[in-house]
Amino acid sequence: MSDDLQPPDLDPWQRLFDDQAYWQNSPDAHYLDLQRIADDLLGQGAIDLEQWQLMRAKADDLHKQSPEVNVARELEDPEA
User: Fold this and answer.
1) Would 71 be classed as within a structural domain?
2) Does residue 1 form part of some domain?
3) pTM of the model
4) pLDDT at site 33
5) Burial annotation 28-53 (CB, 10 A radius, 16+ → b, else e)
């Protein structure tokens, strides 16, 4: 048995992050799922606090660009 630590499997989080259809159709659900996966990885000890913060920041940034937010901004100020 080896005591070597294996890198965490971040593929599910990255696949979800890259899922444009889900993001466009359900930006809030997409954001919450990204947060949940990052929280789970941190809770399992698969990632450290710095990795968790980076994942959460990327999810925050993407959510700020969500179609829903952009449409609302455009409706509020079409000249912007």
Assistant:
1) yes
2) no
3) 0.75
4) 97
5) eebbebbbebbeebbeeebbeeeebe
Domain that holds residue 24: 11-76
Is the model more confident about 79 or about 60?
A: 60
pLDDT digits (tens, 9 = 90+) for 11-61: 899 999 999 889 888 899 999 999 999 999 999 999 999 999 999 999 999
DSSP assignment of the chain equals ---PPPPP--HHHHHHHH-HHHHHH-HHHHHHHHHHHHHHHHHTTSS-HHHHHHHHHHHHHHHHT-HHHHHHHHHH-TT-
Query: Would 33 be classed as within a structural domain?
Result: yes
Question: Is 2 among the domain residues?
Answer: no
In degrees, rounded to 5, the angle at the alpha carbon of residue 40 between the alpha carbons of residues 62 and 67 is 20
> How many whole angstroms separate alpha carbon 58 and alpha carbon 55?
5
Q: How many domains in the chain?
A: 1
